[in-house]
Write a structure and sequence with these properties.
The complex is a heterodimer of chains A (about 425) and B (about 140).
Chain A: H1 13-17, E1 26-27, E2 30-31, E3 33-34, H2 45-58, H3 68-88, E4 96-99, H4 102-117, E5 123-127, H5 136-145, E6 148-152, H6 162-168, E7 173-179, H7 191-199, E8 205-208, H8 220-223, E9 227-231, E10 242-246, H9 248-253, E11 264-267, E12 272-274, H10 288-304, H11 306-325, E13 330-333, E14 342-347, H12 352-361, E15 364-365, E16 367-369, H13 374-380, E17 385-389, H14 396-413
Parallel strand pairs in A: 3-15, 5-6, 5-7, 7-8, 8-9
Antiparallel strand pairs in A: 1-2, 4-10, 9-10, 11-12, 13-14, 14-17, 16-17
Helix pairs in contact in A: 2-10, 3-10, 4-5, 11-14, 12-14
Chain B: H1 3-10, H2 13-20, E1 33-38, E2 45-53, E3 56-65, H3 68-81, H4 89-102, H5 109-112, H6 124-140
Antiparallel strand pairs in B: 1-2, 2-3
Classes of the chains: A alpha/beta (about 425), B alpha+beta (about 140).
């Protein structure tokens, strides 16, 4: 673990980088510049070691055996839940469900809440900047129930048009599901206001927190959000594990999402009764090592501290935005006032894939394409963007290399 | 070959030239056939338009958006299609893909420009997208 200075707002980025052995790798014979943490962050040593230790010393199925090893595995798994509960300030561990990731979290709510509460003529509100994972599950349940999808539009800068949202809310609205931080634009949405307006009409709100959780301090009770979901692998944890937070009153009212072991109380061929929360929604043997790794990732982020993370990333965002803006022919996509450390851009006359290929040859990893937000790309009339995203381990030197690479691409493709 | 030279090979003047000035890059008013070439992973999307007379392609054009590689590749395909019999298309596609991906020797400079794509496995669908879509259409005829 890196040494953290007493000043909670500054961090020693070199010490942090030393926690991530992968950052020492070379790509294309050059020191790697990894600017795709919004797709999946790298993992610190402590996360990998915690999972290794689990597999080498504690591996057994959870909530099943009477023997000591099974108890140790159960404790390790439940410790992950406990750490997440504290991390997002959930009122109870019952409200913290392990899922495979954000996508599964949204599918769970869309399917389970939807089957119970959506009827023909009802409305579900999402926004124009949603990831496909917060569009398609709602389309599927709308098809099944006859409910209708309504979409909050965005401005040219990449901000939600809140007046339109306010007018959209009505007695037919049964749920609002919006992204907290846009993966393509970096926009931090005014979620407090979104929740406040929905709650004024007793409508629950789901937030897709996939891109918020690595950057912002999330307090689900302060937000008063009904559902909050995120993935482990974007916050320095492993793939295959994520969290769905849900208020107990909703989770109790909703039917199970999947059937199987663990989620039952009693089973007979005539009738099955379900286990209590959170197990009601955790059918089958869970990703135990994933929960252990996620717990270690929570500890890692808490040791660095949110303030320090946010300050560092904001510095990178400001530095990167300024440096990239100076490149002739560049167009930034997403210039909201309140942004997380994501910069999407286009180069005049150059397709994002060609820019990405040239950057790759310089050892720079960026994301290119539509970022699973095709409707948003259509909104801006563009095929895709080049996206650079920054995490706590990135440096200004990384951004200098990016700027040099983009200039080279502009020259080469001109 | 170092990274810089590989890049220069890929983004040679032939590919960049066709990217900037694509051949018959326009929608056709009343085509006999309209074929979509779409890669949902990257979003590249083209429409190929064919006018056919007596089993021969009289006129071809295309519209749509994509990267320099896919646009140049589609452009060259469209240019070559004109005047060609339908049953000549499959052998031409095989020749093109052999040159692009297998390094088959050739004196065809335009086809040869895509041989550099071999060093960029992530970009192979950009090279073959329109060719594959055309083949799929042919197979259904």
């Amino acid at each position: 673990m890196s040494t953290i200075t007493a000043d909670t707002t500054s961090l020693d980025v070199q010490a942090i980088r030393s926690d991530f052995p992968i950052l020492e790798r070379e790509m294309r014979n050059k020191p790697m510049v990894f600017l795709d943490s919004a797709a999946s962050s790298q993992k610190p040593d402590s996360v990998v070691k915690a999972m290794d230790y689990y597999y080498q010393q504690q591996n057994a199925n959870v909530h099943r055996g009477v023997y000591q090893l099974s108890q140790e595995a159960t404790d390790a798994y439940e410790k992950g839940r406990h750490l997440v509960q504290g991390f997002i300030n959930a009122a109870s561990e019952k409200e913290v469900l392990f899922v495979r990731g954000t996508t599964e979290g949204i599918n769970l709510v869309a399917s389970s809440y939807g089957r119970k509460f959506l009827q023909e003529g009802d409305e579900v509100i999402i926004s124009a900047m949603e990831h496909h994972s917060n569009i398609v599950p709602w389309q599927l349940i709308c098809e099944q129930t006859g409910a209708k999808l309504r979409v909050i539009p965005v401005t040219d800068e990449g901000e939600l048009i809140m007046e339109e949202y306010e007018q959209m809310l009505n007695e037919r609205t049964k749920i609002v599901a919006v992204v907290h931080v846009s993966n393509t634009l970096g926009t931090i949405n005014p979620v407090e206001r979104i929740i406040e307006l929905a709650h004024a009409k007793d409508i629950p709100v789901l937030l897709d927190g996939a891109q918020a959780i690595p950057h912002l301090k999330i307090d689900v009770q302060a937000l008063d959000v009904d559902f909050y979901t995120f993935s482990g692998h974007k916050m320095f944890g492993p793939t295959g594990i994520g969290i769905l937070y849900g208020k107990e009153k909703w989770l109790n009212a909703m039917p199970p999402y999947q059937g199987g072991g663990e989620m039952i109380e009693t089973v007979s061929f005539e009738k099955t009764t379900f286990n209590e929360l959170p197990h009601k929604f955790e059918a089958g043997t869970p990703d135990i090592a994933g929960a252990v790794g996620l717990g270690a990732a929570v500890e890692y982020m808490e040791q660095i501290g949110h303030e320090a993370i946010q300050k560092h990333e904001h510095d990178l965002l400001v530095y990167g935005t300024e440096a990239l803006s100076k490149i002739p022919g560049i167009r930034l996509i997403g210039t909201a006032e309140d942004k997380a450390s994501v910069i999407s851009f286009l180069l005049d006359g150059a397709h994002p894939y060609d820019v990405g290929t040239i950057l790759d040859q310089m050892g720079i990893a960026v994301r290119t394409g539509h970022h699973c937000t095709q409707p948003l790309m259509d909104r801006y009339g563009i095929p895709g963007t080049v996206r650079a995203s920054f995490a706590v381990y990135n440096t200004k030197e990384d951004i200098d290399r990016l700027v040099e690479g983009v200039r080279r691409a502009a020259k080469m493709l001109a | 070959m170092d990274a810089e030279s590989k890049l220069k090979q890929l983004y040679r003047s032939i590919i960049l030239g066709y990217n900037k000035n694509p051949y018959h890059y326009e929608e056709m008013e009343s085509p006999d056939h309209e074929i979509e070439a779409y890669n949902p992973l990257c979003g590249d999307k083209y429409k190929l338009f064919l006018q056919i007379e007596d089993g021969r392609i009289k006129k071809a054009s295309f519209s749509g958006f994509g990267c320099a590689i896919s646009k140049a590749s589609t452009s060259i395909l469209v240019k070559r299609l004109e005047g060609m019999k339908l049953d000549e298309i499959a052998p031409m596609k095989e020749e093109f893909l052999n040159i692009a991906f297998e390094g088959a020797p050739t004196e065809d400079e335009e086809f040869e420009a895509f041989a550099a794509a071999k060093a960029f496995p992530g970009r192979s669908t950009c090279v073959s997208l329109s060719w594959d879509s055309l083949q799929e259409w042919l197979d259904q005829q």
